[in-house]
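Retro notes, item 3 of 5
We never archived the inputs for the shikimate-3-phosphate complex last cycle. Fixing that now. Sequence and ligand:
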Amino acid sequence: MNPSLVWTSRARGPLHGAAVIPGDKSVSHRAIMLAAIAQGRSRITGFLEGEDTRATAAAFAQMGVWIETPSPSERIVHGVGLRGLRAPQASIDCGNAGTGMRLLAGLLAGQAFDSELRGDASLSRRPMRRVIEPLVSMGAEIESDEGALPPLRIRGGHSLAGISCTPAVASAQVKSAILLAALYAHGTTVVREVRPTRDYTERMLEAFGWPIEFGSGWARLAGGHALAATDVVVPADFSSAAFFLVAATITPGSSLLLRSVGINPRRTGLLEVLRLMGADITEINPVVRGGELLADLQVRHAALRGIDVPEALVPDMIDEFPALFVAASVAAGTTRIRGAAELRVKESDRLAMMARGLATLGIEVDESPDGATITPGTLGAGRVESAGDHRIAMAFAVAGLVSTGIVTINDCANVATSFPGFDVLANGCGFDIRVA
Ligand code: S3P
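Structure as it came back at the time:
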């Protein structure tokens, strides 16, 4: 990573045209994982060529899985079966990816061999107790650094037993870690959620032929089956599209078409919130492809009003708050966010980073432990920190579109973890992002 990558973003005019957003990060991680431990050859199309998802593919290559890249965004995975992974010869580097590390912890907990998962500076600060505790209660042995922080050292050779649990945090990563460990466990595992979260692991297990029952906020499966290779079509990532939805909404005169975006309802909380604020976004040509609902999203400029963000929508838009902060900064009236304490343990403390950066640009933000109140105003010039957090960097690039001056954003290299080529695609639609 290049920590010195600095971007500037400034107003240029309306956004227009059509954009193809890269593949979904959550789906890409899971597709590699399940294909790797399935029997047979799976083809993944629309794979996200981001650093996070490539790190997951590299992890399985390290464990003896042959993964071909016939063309960019395509992978052929030669699955080795549930018990076919080989012991990695070195520690597995998950990079910046919380999803990679937490899901791998579950998948590796029931292997016959030892493994170690490590990450970059940001990932090394992220809480792992939430996966360690349920996995240990299934019989896994996992050591971590002080405070349940990475690296995770997973001792193999333990036999796991199914559990019934309700994790304290609403987290698809925690749910998925438990479900992946449950593939290797004796008996049945049931996960109930305090609020429903994205269900890609459940849907994909079903697509790979594993018997599973699930509904909104719960999932149940038993060990002792096999995964059969299948082809996966990865939709465009709604969380990446979110920056363009907000950008076109707040930039006068804009009209932008985003093609084939995944609109799984567990991901589209921002769509609902932007509509409550007055946004003009239309779903065109909805189709189900690879078991996932996709649509083209047509977004036109609209005047926004501030709202109290419904708490029930928080998990469905957990990655979209940096973009929402920018929309709220230029809405008419105050926006209040509550019940979003999880934002403090993402790639950065997103409540703090957005509050600090917006304050630098002249917007008043009152932080609370689990949210913020944003009083809109005029976005001005300034230099803000992204803290190496991809979504903070992209959110401030969007802020630049409606700033009266130049927004300078420090530490932007990690945008490549989820959205390689964001600046080029954005500039093609009417942004003015430059490397400083
Ligand atoms: C993800 C779940 C969310 C989200 C992350 C991806 C996943 O994390 O923030 O970017 O793929 O399961 P939590 O499950 O920790 O909320």
